[in-house]
Specification:
mainly beta; four-stranded antiparallel sheet; 1 helix; WD40/YVTN_repeat-like_dom_sf; WD40_rpt
Length: 264
């Protein structure tokens, strides 16, 4: 949180105060806020899934710069949730579905009750991937008002589209030749993927294929770039930002088809 005393910065850098601190026996690989902003899910190498509450407003108002971080409120916890490490997490836009991906090559999807802050019932397990599931994102199918899960990772380097009502994968999109490291959607039928093969691909579910391909630039401007570790598109769908394993970042004009800026 931003300290109140930093509201009038006077040219100084903002000062952020850590509020809570969660420690796990092993590396924490994924954290994702619920759409309502009041809680978040955490997954780790210890195979444990936690859902934690965000601090209450009165706690934030009383923050001091010497605040000592405390353990967050753990609302729900599942140990040995996967047989392997939890690599990624995703909530759907309404917050009633939570998906987790793992290096055990599976995805688990659960219903979440926002009134009780509890995971409900059993879990659906998806086994179409033949390698580590590295990233996922939900899209909304406006034609039948259902959620779709987009997932990708290692192995066959395919991106799978799953109908969350039937828990059935119904599309497998090919194109990448390296591990898929990042996925992002910004609404509608479009999403973007970043890969170890040094490319960024734009996909349109209406055409069931790749509609645009960008090759990662190198930090020096000469030769090929490096693996695309992260991708994100602004809500208007005009600008792409990508992060690469050589510490290079790129800002890209999607409609103009040009690199605006690269920086480290």
């Amino acid at each position: 949180a931003l300290s109140d005393s930093s509201a009038d910065l006077g040219g100084r850098k903002p000062h952020f105060v850590p509020i809570t601190r969660l420690e796990d026996a092993q590396a924490i690989r994924a954290a994702e806020f619920h759409p309502n902003g009041q809680l978040y899910a955490i997954g780790s190498n210890s195979k444990t899934l936690r859902i934690c509450g965000y601090p209450k407003s009165h706690e934030l108002r009383s923050l001091r710069e010497d605040h000592v971080p405390h353990q967050p409120s753990v609302l729900s916890k599942r140990v040995k949730h996967h047989k392997g490490s939890i690599y990624c997490l995703a909530w759907n836009t309404t917050g009633d579905l939570l998906a987790t991906g793992s290096n055990d090559k599976t995805i688990k999807m659960m219903r979440f009750n926002g009134m009780t802050n509890e995971l409900e019932g059993g879990e659906a397990e998806l086994t179409m991937h033949d390698g580590t599931v590295r990233d996922m994102c939900f899209m909304e199918d406006l034609s039948n008002r259902s959620s779709l899960l987009i997932s990708g990772g290692a192995g066959d380097c395919k991106i799978y589209v799953t109908d969350c009502d039937t828990m059935t994968p119904f599309q497998a999109l090919s194109g990448h030749s390296g591990n898929i490291l990042s996925l992002h959607t910004w609404g509608g039928a479009m999403f973007v993927s970043g890969s170890q093969d040094r490319t960024i691909r734009f996909w349109d579910l209406r055409t069931r294929g790749c509609v645009n391909l960008i090759t990662a630039p190198s930090a020096s401007g000469k030769g090929p770039g490096s693996a695309v570790a992260a991708v994100c598109v602004d809500p208007s769908g005009k600008l792409l930002v990508s992060g690469h394993e050589d510490s290079n970042c790129m800002l890209y004009d999607i409609r103009g088809g040009r690199i605006i800026q690269t920086f480290q």
